[in-house]
Amino acid sequence: MKKITVDPLTRIEGHMKVEVMVDNGEIKEASSTGTLFRGFEIILKGRHPLDANRLTQRICGVCPASHSTASALCLDDAFGIGGKITDNGRIIRNLILGSNFLQSHILHFYHLAALDYVDVTSVAKYKGDDPSLKSINDFIARGQLFPFVPRYEGDYRFKEEENIELVDHYVRALGMRMKAHELLAIFGGKMPHNVGTIAGGVTSKVTTDKIVNFLWRAKEIKEFVDNIYIPDVLKAAEVYSDYFTIGSGCGNLLAYGGFEQEGNEMLFKPGMVSTDLKKGNVDALKITEDVKSSWYADASTHKNPAEGETIPEPGKKGAYSFLKSPRYDGKVYELGPLARIAVNYVSGDEKVKTLVDSVLKKFKAGPDKLFSVLGRHAARAIDAKIVVDAMIEWVQQLKPGEPSYTQCDVPDEASGIGLTEAPRGALGHWITIKGGKIDRYQVITPTAWNASPKDDNDQPGPIEQALIGTKIKDEDNPFEIVRIVRSFDPCLACSVHLVDYKGNEIGVVDAGC
Amino acid sequence: MAKDTKTAEYPVIWLQGAGCTGCSVSILNSVSPSISNVLIDEVVPGKHVSMRFHATIMAGSGEVALKVLPDTKKELTGKYILIVEGAIPTADNGVYCELGDKTLLEVFKDMAKDALAVIAIGQCAAFGGIPAAEPNPTGCKGVMHVLKHNNIKVPVINVPGCPVHPDWFVGTVASIMLGGLDIEVDDLARPKLFYGGLIHENCPRRPDFDKGKFAEKIGDEGCLYELGCKGPYTSADCPERQFNSGINWCIKNGSPCHGCVEPEFPDKFSPLYKKIKVKE
Predict the structure, then answer these.
(1) Cys-Cys crosslink for A33: which of A17, A132, A182, A292, Cβ 3.0 to 4.6 Å?
(2) Chain B: residue whose CA lies nearest to A49
(3) Domain B8-194 in this protein, CATH class
(4) Three-state secondary structure string covering A335-402
(5) What one-character DSSP code corresponds to residue A229?
(6) pLDDT for the residue numbered A498
(7) Which residues in A lie closer than 8 A to residue B75 (C-beta atoms)?
(8) What does the pLDDT read at residue A505?
């Protein structure tokens, strides 16, 4: 068997390494490794509870709004004001989170994933007058092709004119994802790391000029999603159609649900779906985290996160990641847009059903094909459409002059939970407050599930399972590996942190740099 | 193939340590020049940023990508700019952040030695930031601290912020291209151009402070000082520049300033929503 190591696995958020063992051109074993550890929960202990909302955002600069949302829900719950958030407060939180779904999904498809499929160097042959393409043409002519080259060579299948069009869309998408951040800043103050979403609602006030500004920026992004993003994903699916059967993964999907609407109804429903397309209900108490393959002490393995205790042990024998292995009822689950779309699909959401069925019909495929590299990309594009369409409705429900914040007091002793959906899947925050300070803070992110290493029963994580069994055409240019991993849109900074801490010394020695 | 031999290339190596990628994402929000202008075009006439290594955007992965580091060191000794985003974990010999079988600490020291200059982008790279907050579980340090400790002599410019404003980054790079490394900086090595004035001095709510009109809770009119605003201790041009294409910024959005460009962020500025005296 031959070992292929991809380290760093670039064009994702954070630090990731993937190793596979290949025999006769087929992946037999795979390991996914998170290579950065910061210890956020240790840092949060003893701080003021309100600060958790600002600090946990800094877990991830690609999806900070997800953490500010989960953290605000968690603090609302602990402060006993979960049901008292004003309509303006609830809607603006959704607009902030939704704006970042759009920026994250557009960024992922065009700027993180697309370079595995699109050949930028094709623009060297461009003869037209488009200023942006001409400037790329000049760039190529100057001969310094970083950061687009070096790269894996070989399997770029688009025709020259398709490549040129997609490079043009890559540049336009840079502007669109920037616009999505502008959208967020209207009510969020700034982005990355908004200051709008806080316990009790949001800091921003509702005025008509903001509503109309938001509405028209959102419409512009909707145009892009409908007329560029979704068609480009479908075009990629036509040209790389074998990726409907590559990277199928563990076959189990899970979502917490998110975006509370009027009457407590969620835009994305909570639930679980497997390849049989039957819906199951989620019970957070059935979540456990294993550490057999993680650089943490074994004593804490296989516990519900609310009871977990974790001590870093870099260099632990047999371990290979700073990620732990979250499991549901002992089974492996994939989280993300595919899970959200599948759960809404089996929950009878007509709009999602129509969108998904139209994609499947185009490719004469059954729903089983959604469990694939292309299924994940298609689900993410549909996810973006569902969110932007809803945002355009929501912003019109805002009421100028009415409050968007509910005053709240920090209790001496309390606990809270905040569950939502991040662009990459279900996200949970848990807090315990003692003496008016944070006693324990826990975060479990979607990539912690998706990029998890083997659990105590040696079941590989979702990305590992998606890799195993894959045929590699060219071991020097293993496109299959990076295309599979990137289809999950991993966010490693989100996923690597200590999940619990109860005051144990962790044996950190300052080595004096 | 090279038809324009006059273009001067400014090779850049961008390393990411203990951070969140938020500064990279923020830089994508550069308005004028846009990020594609920065990467593709001549940012100033005749000068082009050649982004040789940046893990979030570069096409290559694994060995193909990693090889760029020793190649650049060899071909361009003393000529490349090293940009660091994120703090450097130093505890347990740097084991808490790795890049291709080496610790980030090793890679950083190795690349810094032969760089023309180092730019520390964002709060974490400049001062340690949140990863270095008490009890600093992974021994995170800012770039200058690690260089000093290892006796590596190379010019450093700090461009802090959580995240950095894209203009602060692009403006610093443009300053180097136009006038070299001799940029006017304050005692924290921050360009005075961007970090020269107190937020409190230029805040649109300053008249409220002067009149003694203070907000008592979020959503109130008035100066946010009583709600923990760190504007009186924070030097940056946020009030004039604002974020995200000039649409908004923290205080305009009804939030107190958290002081995210100062070394005091977050520990000495905590609790973030409480009024505290931190420095004269």
Answers:
(1) A17
(2) B271
(3) alpha beta
(4) CCHHHHHHHHHHCCCHHHHHHHHHHHHHCCCCHHHHCCHHHHHHHHHHHHHHHHHHHHHHHCCCCCCC
(5) I
(6) 38
(7) none
(8) 32
The CA distance from A142 to the nearest CA of chain B, in Å, is 5
Query: What are the Cα distances from residue A233, in Å, to A147, A368, A372?
Result: 23, 18, 14
CATH of the domain at A308: 1.10.645.10
Q: Are the CB atoms for A509 and A53 separated by under 8 Å? A: no
DSSP string computed for B27-51: HTT-TTTTHHHHHHSEEETTEEEEE
Q: What is the number of H-type helices and E-type strands within chain A?
A: 15, 15
Q: Are B158 and B120 in contact (CB under 8 A)?
A: yes
How many residues can be counted in chain A?
A: 513
Decide: B240 and B199 in contact? Cβ < 8 Å: no
Is A36 in a helix, a strand, or coil?
strand
Gap between the Cα atoms of A58 and A34, Å rounded:
18
Give the model confidence (pLDDT) of B206-235 as tens digits.
Answer: 999 999 999 999 999 999 999 999 999 999
- CA–CA distance, A192 with B62 (Å, rounded to integer): 28
Count of structural domains, chain A: 1
Topology of domain B197-269, per CATH?
Cytochrome-c3 Hydrogenase; Chain A, domain 2 (4.10.480)
Query: Mean pLDDT in chain A?
Result: 93
B97 classed as catalytic: no
The reported pLDDT for the residue numbered A494 is 67
Catalytic residue chosen out of the listed positions B140, B165, B223, B258:
B223
Tell me whether residue B124 is one of the annotated catalytic residues: yes
pLDDT score of A284: 86
- Rounded CA gap, A98 and A406, in Å? 22
What pLDDT does residue B76 have?
Answer: 98
Q: Which of B280, B226, B233, B279 is closest to B260 using CA atoms?
A: B233
Paired with A197 in beta bridges are: A202
Q: Which residues pair with A311 in a beta bridge?
A: none
DSSP string, A190-205: SSSS-SSEETTEESPP
Active site residue B20: yes
Mind telling me how many Å the CA of B235 is from chain A's nearest CA? 18
Q: For chain B, which residues make up each domain, given as ranges?
A: 8-194, 197-269
Please determine, for residue A78, whether its predicted confidence score (pLDDT) is greater than 80: yes
User: How much is the pLDDT for A38?
Assistant: 86
Checking if the pLDDT of A249 tops 60, the result is yes
Q: CB–CB of B246/A232 below 8 Å?
A: no
- Catalytic: B250? yes
pLDDT (tens digit, 9 = 90+) per residue, A277-307?
A: 999 999 988 999 999 999 988 887 888 777 7
pLDDT on residue B1: 43
Share of chain A above pLDDT 70, in %: 96
Residue B103: is its pLDDT beyond 50? Answer: yes
B1, B16, B20, B88: best to mutate for the A interface, most A CBs within 10 A: B20
> Which chain B positions have a beta carbon within 8 Å of A195's beta carbon?
250, 253, 255, 258
Which residues does chain A have within 8 Å of residue B35's beta carbon, measured at their own beta carbons? 174, 178
Range of the domain at A268: 2-119+156-495
